[in-house]
């Protein structure tokens, strides 16, 4: 991502409480732009960081969902996939964190985060894909409380090893 101009990400914001199964839904499709997240979800954090870097704190309402006690209305009324993040905008709800980074960057005000140059853009896409594979590989066993296999451990280590250094995080 290109360097974001201005101190948009340092805006102080009072974070809303996470909504659970007994919480009322927000007035969905009332024209408000809403980003549904879970504070602890690394995928949701991507979209949340993008919103903040663009300085959209006042234009994109944050709705935190408690995934341990997920409200039924989230899947029924907001996003049928039931995952976070999702973005309610222009009477539609979109998901998939990497798509949302691109969507928020190109459809909202604020500093452009992704490069316009085709080669740089391709590099950004490769970085996204690599970071995504890494997060998924690390997060899936954590979520399912499964043991990390030796194969996965080796793969993660290979991603953490700096090519020109023997003192990277894997050593
Ligand atoms: N590929 C999706 C993955 C999103 C995802 O798996 N989010 C998890 C939380 S980290 C989720 O919403 N899980 C549904 C649940 O826990 O009920 C993306 O990148 O947006």
From TrEMBL:
Matches recorded under SUPFAM superfamilies:
Thioredoxin-like
MF (Gene Ontology): glutathione transferase activity
Q: Which residues form the GST N-terminal domain?
A: 31-112
PROSITE patterns, alphabetically?
GST_NTER
Q: Positions of the region Disordered?
A: 1-26
Pfam families attached here?
A: GST_N_3
Family matches, as InterPro entries: Glutathione_S-Trfase_N, GSTL1/2/3, Thioredoxin-like_sf
Protein's UniProt name: GST N-terminal domain-containing protein
Which lineage is the organism of this entry classified under, starting from the top rank?
Answer: Eukaryota, Viridiplantae, Streptophyta, Embryophyta, Tracheophyta
The gene designation is: LOC542388
